[in-house]
Amino acid sequence: MSEQTSQQNPVRTALVTGATRGIGRAVARDLAKDHVVFVGGRSEQDVERLREELSGVGPGTRPFVADVTSDEQVAAAWEPLAREFPGLHVLVHSAGIAPQSTVADAPREMWEQIFDVNVVSVAQLTRLTLPHLRAAGGDVVAINSGSGFTSRASSALYSGTKFALRALTDALREEEREHGVRVSSVHPGRVATDMQRELHEYMGQEYRPEDWIQPEQIAAAVRMAVDAERASAVEVVSVRPSGMR
Q1: Cβ–Cβ contacts within 10 Å for residue 4, how many?
Q2: N or C, which end of the chain has less CB nearby within 10 Å?
């Protein structure tokens, strides 16, 4: 397919943050079948590695190399994509961090960092891309967590951001109905990713990836939201380990 979009038959586009690992990677691989995927990541090397993997799959990819906490880097990564494509059909927020700490041990810097990555950056990237999402009648999908509904010991930092992200997406959903933008919140339980391995290490537990949800199952939930007929909206999806194998 040409690098330039056709005005008669515009290609569908999807920006996926955190696309170089875990859930974001699975989502990017799935959407690449029928979208030009803007591969989001902090490392140019990791972004290019995934783009190479996806070469020849679907209509192609573009790089979106930026630290999501840097408005300058995000704007610089978005500007050439906004010039090339007339609209953004899908925005998937998958970038995130999950430091563990008790409230007693968490300094201000930990709170500021996790809220910046998991909440403020989501709001700012959404704000930046909303004109293109509105033009395309697009979808915003936030990868939230089961921790966006409940919290437990040592998870105040992470759960705090996920509760806040749920509030953000709930408000955005109502604000954007009149503009034709749908907003979905996907809440996975424990998923077999690097983040899950790190959590198990923190808890001193054995990590068995086969015990948990595979990232492709979360990508399937994102696909369900994106492919829903325009007369409907998949607003909240909770995907939990079944305990059955």
Answers
A1: 9
A2: C
Residue 189's pLDDT is 77
What pTM does this model have?
0.90
Contacts by residues 172-181 (CB-CB < 8 Å, ≥ 24 positions apart)? 172/126, 172/140, 173/233, 173/235, 176/130, 176/133, 176/134, 176/140, 179/130, 179/134, 180/134, 180/137, 181/130, 181/133, 181/134, 181/137, 181/138, 181/139, 181/140
Tokens of 175: 């604000």
Instruction: Render 177-200 in DSSP notation, one character per residue.
Output: GGGT-EEEEEEE-SBSSHHHHHHH
Edge-to-edge strands of the sheet including 90-93?
A: 61-65, 36-41, 13-16, 90-93, 139-143, 182-188, 236-239
Homologous superfamily of domain range 13-237: NAD(P)-binding Rossmann-like Domain (3.40.50.720)
Nearest to 22 by CA among 226, 241, 218: 218
Residues involved in catalysis: 158
Q: Return the pLDDT at 210.
A: 63
